[in-house]
Amino acid sequence: MGVTERVRFDEKGLVPVVAQDAEDGAVLMVAYADREAVERTLATGEAHYYSRSRGELWRKGQTSGNTQRVVEVRVDCDGDTLLYLVEPRGPACHTGERTCFFATLAGEGVGVSAGRGEDGVGLGAMLER
Amino acid sequence: MGVTERVRFDEKGLVPVVAQDAEDGAVLMVAYADREAVERTLATGEAHYYSRSRGELWRKGQTSGNTQRVVEVRVDCDGDTLLYLVEPRGPACHTGERTCFFATLAGEGVGVSAGRGEDGVGLGAMLER
């Protein structure tokens, strides 16, 4: 049985992947992988995903140069999500931000403790309940 | 416009959510949320998800007691994934592990730097390429 037999791909043959900075723990991005992407990641140590928009294997950084060296691949308890622990070479986000998660949603029960702030501040009162 | 208008729910009305320990950055779990779950999380500061197996709103810890206080909710650059920064009260995983990502997949290009190890060690050579 190959390693990827332990992964439960969904009806589209994909599994969500969280990419986390192995150094400081920042969550950088969430993308998707098919079996080939997982196998190539494990074989090469370079992060591979499946581009849902382009419908093809996607080696992170193949055009931008912002590759990710994968230190470890983890699978969750029920096998339907992966975690890549990576050493990023450049920003993960296509916007040039280090992480794709730079915007905060604010609500009455949740504050804005970090991040850009301006994205979320003041919207809490507009939350419909 | 409500805060959740910024979130792009998929064709099932769901969005994946990464729960991360706000204190030390550990990725605890990935689950899904519908609009109601996001709104309740923002309004109450307690992590809510949508249980795909039960088909209903799921307040984390409602039966186990292992709730999650949400410090911040972030949305990624294209609006289709959320990040809950949480203070967990007890393990996130139904197995009793602190995080659902306790198992490692090993390959020739990726080592085993942490985690349980035994789950992944030695399987690398069996990887089909």
Task: Tell me briefly what this model is.
The structure is a homodimer of 129-residue chains. The first copy, chain A, is mainly beta and 129 residues long.
Model description:
Chain A has 129 residues and is mainly beta. Chain A folds into two domains: 3-98, Ubiquitin-like (UB roll); 102-129, no CATH class. The model of chain A is unreliable at 114-129 (pLDDT under 50). Helix content of chain A is 8%, strand content 31%. Chain A is built from one helix and seven strands. The longest helix of chain A is centred in the N-terminal third of the chain and has 10 residues, at 35-44. Chain A starts with 14 loop residues before the first strand and ends in a 24-residue tail after the last strand.
How would you describe this structure in keywords?
4-stranded mixed sheet, mainly beta, 129 residues, two-stranded antiparallel ribbon, 31% strand, disordered C terminus, Ubiquitin-like (UB roll), homodimer
Tell me the CATH architecture of the largest domain in chain A.
Roll
User: Which consecutive residue ranges of chain A, at least 5 long each, have pLDDT under 50?
Assistant: 114-129
Q: What's the story with the biggest beta sheet of chain A?
A: 4 strands, mixed
Give the strand tally of chain A. Answer: 7
What's the tally of helices of chain A? 1
User: For the largest interface in this structure, which chains are involved and how many residues does each contribute?
Assistant: A-B, 64 and 64 residues
Strands side by side in the biggest sheet of chain A: 2-1-6-5
User: In CATH terms, what is the fold-level topology of the largest domain in chain A?
Assistant: Ubiquitin-like (UB roll)
